[in-house]
Amino acid sequence: MSKLPNVTTSIFTVMSKMAAEHNAINLSQGFPNFPVDERLTEIVSRLALEDVHQYTPMSGYPPLLAKIATLVKSSYNRTIIPETEILVTAGATQAIFTTLLALLKPNEDVIILDPSYDCYEAPILLSQAKPIRVSLNDDYTPNWNTIADAFSEKTKMIIINNPHNPTGKILNESDLENLEALLEKHPDVLLLSDEVYEYITFEQKHISTHTRTKLLDRCITVSSFGKSFHVTGWKIGYLVAPEYLMKEIKKVHQFLVFSVNSICQIAISKYLDLVDVNEISSFYQKKRDYFRSLLKNSRFQLMPCEGTYFQVVSYANISNENDVDFCKRLITEFGVAAIPISTFYADGKDLKLIRFCFAKDNQTLEEAAKRLCEI
């Protein structure tokens, strides 16, 4: 008997497989197709010949833990203790899975804001807890009254994703104040903040939970070097949490992966001495602006993109098809793969919106846009 009877093949896998079969341009899955920074690959090349191939300590390579603490301090002016408040993980997905498995008990509720990334629900179900899916407004802003109504005496955690995948929205100051007020009324509820796109924001920076003193004693914040440094295949993430929560998370982590890829941890530790994370946003803003300019004469309506490397568009002026069928036809007839937004909702809510990834080289974006403008 299946523990996850309603879980099927991920929409990302489905669309990428179709893209390969039809030789389509894959703007569905969120991975870059341009080269990694040569400074980073040179570090890896040097390290391959050194004695760096055995287990690191369970929490992470100690110099990397120290560099993460420095990064959090410089980015958000938060002081954290490397040895007790940071954990290096095999990607952000493992960080989230481990956190949920460690902190949830059977029959507890977890609030998820839809549309939501697909890695939240499965570990909740495997913990025998219950996901409570609450839809954002149609403009993807949170309705805090609706969210508050979803809380009960069984609520153990709320998950936020900021900057938000798939919508590209970021939470504003009022949102954070509403969140703080809500959690103040529910002092035993934990917060899981998925901030893997924290360094990919545009006109305004996202407001990290690292900066909210009211939340720090109950918040687990998840980050991703894979997203920030264009090395998604390395699967290197990290989370920051207060020591009393981190102790529980580490108990699960040590039996799930024990420790994370040594050479990648050491390479990132050395790379952090060379790279300026503040340059990442401007790099992706140029990508975003270029992709949007290429699509301005298309029949697609461009939605706001405040962060992440995803552009949501409406195809309502083109077709009345549901978004899954439209995306499949986009591959088979026009040779471009996208992700239907309805698949991020528990109830399959279809607003005729699809998501493109613009973390691609200009040639790929130009050819994709050419095909999309012909629709």
From TrEMBL:
Residues 24-372 form the Aminotransferase class I/classII large domain. GO terms for molecular function: transaminase activity. The keyword Repressor does not apply. Gene3D superfamilies: Aspartate Aminotransferase, domain 1, Type I PLP-dependent aspartate aminotransferase-like (Major domain). Its EC number is 2.6.1.-. CDD domains: AAT_like. Its cofactor is pyridoxal 5'-phosphate. PANTHER family: FI04487P (PTHR43807). NCBIfam families: PRK09082.1. This is Methionine aminotransferase. It comes from Flavobacterium granuli.
